[in-house]
Amino acid sequence: MARVFSGIQPSGGMHLGNLLGALRNWVAYQHEHEAVYCVVDLHALTTAPDPAELRRNTVAAATLLMSVGIDPERSTLFVQSAVSEHAELAWMMECTVGFGELRRMTQFKDKSDRTEFVSAGLFTYPALQAADILLYDTDLVPVGDDQRQHIELCRDIAERFNHRYGDTFVVPAHVIPEAGARVMDLQNPDDKMSKSLESAGTVGILEDADGVARKFKRAVTDSDGEVRYDPEAKAGVSNLLGILASATGRTPEAVADDYAQYGPLKADTADAVNELLDPIRTRYAELSSDPAEVARLLHTGADKARTVAVATLKRARSNAGLLPRS
Ligand code: AMP
Ligand code: TRP
Questions:
Q1: What is the pLDDT, as a whole number, of residue 196?
Q2: What is the DSSP string of 182-248?
Q3: What is the mean pLDDT of each run of 10 residues along the chain (326 residues)?
């Protein structure tokens, strides 16, 4: 059975892009593969969040993953910092990746342009991400399109390590959905939908149905009035078509054929999204009333994850010439 691994940052509200680009695939994969999913709180530290907020967001992210349908009995679901092997292997990854390779990462360029203090951790972020993936002998990594470059770098790191020290890691592949891989901001459809930018263009997974409908109603389109899928020339309309297609399991081109005007397209997209979000909101309300149970499930997940991580780290340490631990 193939092993699947993916991670998500606990930074504020999860949004429709996370759901369509990544989480829906996570849910599907746990039925076909051995799935390991992680709330990556160490990655969140790269931007120095407020501690109380980080704690709250970590629990909220884990609760949300369970609410979208990640079954902690079936999958391994845990919080990254609970398995300290991630941080230890990350150092070995930092010594395997090139400075020039890290400098080419577009996510680093974007994020460092937006923040005043740029931590070294923000720069070496992909090395920690590679450690996350390689610790579990991962075959497949389901992510949105924005993570393509990081997973490709992870492959290069794994290959370089294997070449230097002998066969140690499985070289993983990314899986990116056809529709929904890049959900754009409803107000600035040239930018991807993101939780770090506070925006009326971001649809939160837990936002109420009226709020969601309002955001779609106000979504930026264009003035030529033609419903056509053309992400280059018609970013706003194409984003709506992409979202509706992803939510209903069709192609954006086929969806475009059903509409002559923007109004009905916006209304139907809002309805389809609300239909997707409704059961998630209900489940989240239920689960968040029992935080002790969520904590218990996460501890069990971390114990399961650690068993695999310890063995992989031991192999990596030994192959690289580090002495055995006492
Ligand atoms: P993050 O929220 O950055 O931790 O991302 C978690 C997952 O959601 C990753 O697999 C991303 O590729 C995916 N993702 C984030 N934003 C979007 C977006 N706007 N469209 C599609 N996928 C996204
Ligand atoms: N960097 C990813 C993001 O911003 C989150 C992440 C951390 C991840 N470790 C991972 C994704 C390992 C896939 C696999 O979305």
A1: 57
A2: SPBPSS-TTSB--SSS--TT--BTTS-HHHHHHHHHT----SS------TTT-HHHHHHHHHHHHHH
A3: 96 90 95 97 96 96 97 97 98 98 96 94 98 98 96 98 98 90 95 78 95 96 95 97 96 96 98 98 96 97 98 98 93
Query: Which of the listed residues 6, 14, 15, 18 should we mutate to test ligand 1's pocket, taking the one with most ligand atoms within 8 A of CB?
Result: 18
Residue type, 197: L
CB distance 41 to ligand 1 below 6 Å: no
Q: Is 252 in the pocket of ligand 1 (CB under 6 A)?
A: no
Q: Largest Cα–Cα distance of the chain, in whole Å?
A: 70
**pTM of the complete model beyond 0.70:** yes
User: Is 192 within 8 Å of 106 (Cβ atoms)?
Assistant: no
CA dihedral 254→257→258→261, nearest 10 degrees, is 130
CA 232 to chain CA centroid, nearest Å: 24
Give residue 288's Cα distance to chain centre. 21
Q: Which residue has the tokens 């790191």?
A: 157
Q: What pLDDT was estimated at residue 42?
A: 98
Residue 130 phi, psi dihedral angles, 5° rounding: -65, -40
Does residue 144's CB lie within 6 angstroms of at least one atom of ligand 1?
yes
Residues linked to residue 5 through DSSP beta bridges, in sequence order: 36
Residue with tokens 């997974």: 205
The strand pair at 76-79 and 173-175 is best described as unpaired
> In this structure, what token pair is assigned to residue 307?
């068993």
Q: For ligand 1, what atom is nearest to the CA of residue 14?
A: 2
Q: What is the pLDDT of residue 13?
A: 81
CA 36–ligand 2 middle distance (angstroms): 12
Q: What pLDDT was estimated at residue 198?
A: 59
| Residue carrying the six token digits 């600035």 | 188
- Give the integer Cα–Cα distance in Å for 128 and 111: 16
DSSP code string of 313-324: HHHHHHHHTPPP
